[in-house]
Amino acid sequence: MKIAALLFCCLAFAAAAGSEEWKDLSVRLMDGEARNHRVKLGLTAEGKDYLIFSWENSKVGYGELEFLQPGRFPARKTLTVDVFYEGGGDSLGGLRLRLVDRRGEIFQYSPGAASSPGHAVYVVDFSKPGQSWGENKDGKFDFPGWFSGLAVCFKSAGESGSLKITRIDYEK
Q1: Which domains does the chain have, with CATH numbers?
Q2: Structure confidence by residue, pLDDT tens digits, 9-68
Q3: How far apart (Å, rounded) are the C-alpha atoms in residues 10 and 126?
Q4: Which of 33, 51, 68, 155 has the highest Cβ tally under 10 A?
Q5: Who's near 150: CB < 8 A, 6+ residues apart?
Q6: CA–CA separation, 33 vs 46, rounded Å?
């Protein structure tokens, strides 16, 4: 898979009580040029970093952001992750959270019912298998795990738009 762009960015992940904070995060945009996708880092007036992912006449129905220095988490029954974003417009089909287990199996999760526009909430129940692929594809999450990335889904190929990811929190 061709890596069209590699960005080193510092996203400001909020440190609310009981949540983990990421200070430095490397992001890789998968096949960005071939898919007509772009990613760039910005800075708010308050000095907080954000990431803008944009697509113009996308050649596929999704985009992929991979974390190169992902946050890790120990064994647990559930994991709650909050992704705060702006934009996306009518072409945004949703965000999918990707996690990897210690054996290299990749799991993908859709946001849950507690989500609202601008706030995707993921409550991962590790006793229930998620969509998975990769090494050791047995559908069982083998701890410890880490955050692999996000898939940005569009309603269809040929769409254009942008999404500003402003914050990601996850429980300790």
Answers
A1: 3-171 (2.60.120)
A2: 323 333 333 455 444 446 789 999 999 999 987 777 877 778 889 999 888 999 999 987
A3: 29
A4: 51
A5: 64, 65, 83, 95, 96, 97, 98, 165
A6: 31
